[in-house]
Amino acid sequence: MTTKLEPISLFKALSDKIRLSIILLLHVEKELCVCEFSEALDEIQPKISRNLALLKTAGLVVNRRQGQWIYYSINDELPQWALNTLSETYSGNQQYIEQALAKLNKIGEHEARPMLLCESK
């Protein structure tokens, strides 16, 4: 079942630099936890959490709990036009999150990062 999403809701949700970066990171990484976003975007956890909540309310992201961590991913029930928009936005703007991805990759493999990042906080 496809989520009902109005274009204005999508573009309003993506009109903030942090939220756009979060969505683009999720487009590449598929799933990330709050501490990974915080590290990659050099933002404090409450600010990341607030922006994730806005994206979740808009229906763009979903989350799941695994142990003590909450992982976020792009809602796979988004309409195709919205998924296409996200894909095209990333394709034409990969440099927008290039540094953030480099930070994450420097830390380690995707599966190990939450343990390395979240445990130290």
From TrEMBL:
- Organism domain of life: Bacteria
Protein name from the UniProt record: Metalloregulator ArsR/SmtB family transcription factor
- All copies of the HTH arsR-type domain together span 1-93
Keywords (A to Z) from UniProt: Arsenical resistance, DNA-binding, Transcription, Transcription regulation
PANTHER family referenced in this protein's UniProt entry, alphabetically: ARSENICAL RESISTANCE OPERON REPRESSOR, TRANSCRIPTIONAL REGULATOR, ARSR FAMILY
Q: Do you know which NCBIfam families this protein is assigned to?
A: HTH_metalloreg (NF033788), PRK10141.1 (NF007528)
SUPFAM superfamilies linked = Winged helix' DNA-binding domain
State any GO BP term from the record: response to arsenic-containing substance
Q: GO: which molecular function terms?
A: DNA binding; DNA-binding transcription factor activity
Q: Where is the signal peptide?
A: none
